[in-house]
Amino acid sequence: MIILGIDPGYAIVGYGILDYDGYTFKPKGYGAITTEAGADFPLRLLDIYNDMKTVITKYKPDAMSIEKLFFNTNQKTGIDVAQARGVIVLAAAESGIPIYEYTPLQVKQSVVGYGRAEKKQVMEMTRSILGLARVPKPDDTADALALAICHGHSSSAISFG
């Protein structure tokens, strides 16, 4: 199963693609989609959508794992992230990819085994699980890989070929 993990945003969208056979994860690719800070917001959304379609076309994922949004104090930022998340979900839905949502608590529990783990612990466990020499940068990319791992662990009841 090829899993596309997404950490949504409008300045940086982290993505990570993992091949999971039910036992081990193999990284296929990871990185970040970035948009220009001064650009008109609709054009930033268009860039995210187009770049996401490119990632989907290149890796042909079987599932998308994306962080479930929650609003904290800054509602404007939350709304903008929600719009970016919408175009990401649209790109996946348009490509026929099932979409699964996970909360940060679920990701921490799945990757570290403790729902109140620190961000550094999640990043280090992600690096370790994937056998990487260092934690991927930016942080959004490492978060996306953790989301993909979370989905793999959550879907372990799925039969693999």
Helix/strand layout:
Elements lengths: L1 E6 L4 E9 L4 E10 L6 H19 L3 E5 L7 H20 L4 E4 L1 H8 L7 H12 L8 H16 L7
Parallel strand pairs: 1-4, 4-5
Antiparallel strand pairs: 1-2, 2-3
Describe the model:
The protein has 161 residues and is of the alpha/beta class. The chain has one domain: Ribonuclease H-like superfamily/Ribonuclease H (Nucleotidyltransferase, domain 5). Helix content is 47%, strand content 21%. The chain has five helices and five strands. The protein has a five-stranded mixed sheet with strand order 3-2-1-4-5. The protein is globular. The C terminus is likely disordered.
In CATH, the topology is named Nucleotidyltransferase, domain 5
Average pLDDT taken over every residue: 92
CATH superfamily: Ribonuclease H-like superfamily/Ribonuclease H
Please report the first level of CATH classification, the CATH class.
Answer: Alpha Beta
Oligomeric state of the chains present here: single chain
Low-pLDDT stretches are 157-161
Beta strand count: 5
The rounded Rg comes to 15 Å
The domain tally reads 1
Query: Pairing-aware structural class of the strands and helices?
Result: alpha/beta
What's the quick description here?
The chain is α/β, with parallel strands linked by helices and 161 residues long. 47% of the residues lie in helices and 21% in strands. It has a single domain (2-154), classed as Nucleotidyltransferase, domain 5.
